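Undecaprenyl-diphosphatase, pasting as requested.
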Amino acid sequence: MDQLWLTIKFLLLGLFQGLTEPIPVSSSGHLLIAQYFLGVEIEGSNSTFALLVNSASLIAVLIVYRKDIKRLVINGLSYFKVKNEETKRDFMFVVYLVVATIPAGLIGVLFQEKIDANLSTVVTVSCTLIITGVGLWLIRNMHGQRKDGQMTMKDAVIIGCAQAVALIPGISRSGATIVAAMARGINQETALRFSFLLFIPISFGGAMLSFTDILNADNLAEMAVPYTVAFLGSLVATYFSLKWFMNIMAKGKLRYFALYCFIVGPLVLLAWYLMN
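Structure tokens follow.
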């Protein structure tokens, strides 16, 4: 029964992470909150488990954006042989993705352990959720006009720095990058696409690390089923949540996520206070 209950808890964690990964409310923050209130203490590294379920989200993003990825790869490589407006647009889009990946990559390598040790708390998340809400509220009525081919290197650097800030639990990665892109006058469709394609390289490295750590874990036999269930739950939940969020973005209703953050942040802090 204990093993069954543990598996159910991990399924809930996977579903919770998957549902919140695409939407701008911080999946890492919600995963930490869920672990706290479900009473789940993960033997080893919490960040390893977070990377595992993020890997499942990565697969879902790859499935949803498979056509865009295929086009970018083909046109990006074709640019070296055939230089036209279309190949240049996609080649530069790839370049901007690479540039935007660098800030989070560097900060993650240098400071991720310190961030996990000092900021992975329910109190931190409750406060940073409110910060995420403020960012979403400020750009709720923005409707940029710039498309893929009109992005600049400055856009890539700013969006990349926003993704780096989102290494702090409770700061939504998708929220921070979308806010930064839309604040730069980029339209909603391009902001969303760039944000989730930017998710791919930063998550790929984490996926390799998480699988290595889990395969070398002493409790692998005991945790194989809970980890697998959490992984599958996150994959399925991310896929449907992302499809839903794409529809929400098209309708320009980001204010609802801002309001959600404004409500959940204080409620989590209150619940934590009452429990302590």
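Note for the archive: DSSP finds eleven helices and no strands in the chain.
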